[in-house]
Amino acid sequence: MKSLTIVKIGGNIVDDVHETEHFLSLAAEYLQPCIIIHGGGKIATELSSKLGIATIMVEGRRITDKATLDIATMVYGGLVNKSLVAKLQALGINALGVTGADGNSILSEKRPVRDIDYGFVGDIIAVNAGFFLDCLDNALMPIVAPLTHDGKGTLLNTNADTIAAQLAIALAPHRDISLLYCFEKKGVLSDMNNEESVITELHEKYYRELVEQGHIHKGMKPKCDNAFMAKKHGVQSVAIVHARQAHRPQSGTTIII
Amino acid sequence: MKSLTIVKIGGNIVDDVHETEHFLSLAAEYLQPCIIIHGGGKIATELSSKLGIATIMVEGRRITDKATLDIATMVYGGLVNKSLVAKLQALGINALGVTGADGNSILSEKRPVRDIDYGFVGDIIAVNAGFFLDCLDNALMPIVAPLTHDGKGTLLNTNADTIAAQLAIALAPHRDISLLYCFEKKGVLSDMNNEESVITELHEKYYRELVEQGHIHKGMKPKCDNAFMAKKHGVQSVAIVHARQAHRPQSGTTIII
After folding, report:
1. What is the total count of domains within chain B?
2. Nearest to B157 by CA among B68, B221, B78
3. pLDDT digit string, tens, across residues B204-232
């Protein structure tokens, strides 16, 4: 089976032009063929603030009213996505920026209201594996913004970590996949206060213990949960690693089930 | 030769949700297969204004500094483009939103500074016909934002009328093309003050006379110049027509050389 790297790059990387360019040069040189999913970063929050639109976060998730959805569509689907595409083109990589609406690539449904109304937030229903495989067959590198659509004309804000996991799961029957969560730390840390305490192999049992003991940072938990979900659903290799080490995932945390 | 409709929809259509939806339903029902190029409309100007960024227009063209380019990327490449894509998906059309950077579809160069420095504005060098033909062969409908790239990592603001003409010219050897400029008037008017004075067939000689006599509205001239350029370069059929009559281009102005 052909290999494929699926990389999620975090908002803190996207926010930093030098980190972004360094990551993209690694992706261009070492990670082909590849699909990138990017987070949004602070730009959306800053733009909302300038426009007087309040940003509300609950459990690390942005509450998305219509104004905030429009900001996300502008910043994630427009500015961040197209800037990455243009930079990759300059590196000789034929990138294609998409949201889940483009090519009907990721269909979702508006998250049902239980305790919290997340607003225009989508839970993924279906990944169009054929679309991504066609892109790869045509030597196009998909760059995926954290937006999906409901098939009824509405875009929905969707967590980039979850998109990466679901994309990897959908493509695992077709490609030997290395799923990488790249961010600004060296991996999952056993001690939140020690940046060097990288857990090289994170077994699920140990992970559950760390969560129970409160040793997993609140932003890290959904990322790890997505990583374990991907691994359990047949994704061949899953790692959490510093963006500067994207070409050396063994330097970070490998997910083991 | 297979037929293909290439439609440019103006900013005044994009700004009006009802006109947009009406146009999209016509495109979905009558114009397939089709490529849509959209203008930007007032949203970019309004956003610039809210953010305190001055909009400078010279001869109907936006002067694009870096802040204005970012706004254009957000609004044209993000909000407008992805909203059109999501709405088309709801109509059962598998739309794919692109800028010229995506798939290296439209390469341009920063306009040389002569009398005016237009800033980050691109003049088209090459249209990647293969990319658009691959999309069409895969039953994808490209929705093109008025942004191109220089191949060196920079996006460039590019006139949507010109993109439509150049795209039609590049695809004319491969498809029997109907190029439509759709906007909020019924066609090219012989009397600017009479909305019913549509010129059914606009011959170039007559057009030059109208221009000399000052009868062509200043926003209409670049549109007509692009339309004549396309026709002269082998585009099979070129018309300027109301967006509500996109399925009946003979109701508007047909370009004759």
Report:
1. 1
2. B68
3. 999 999 999 988 877 799 999 999 999 99
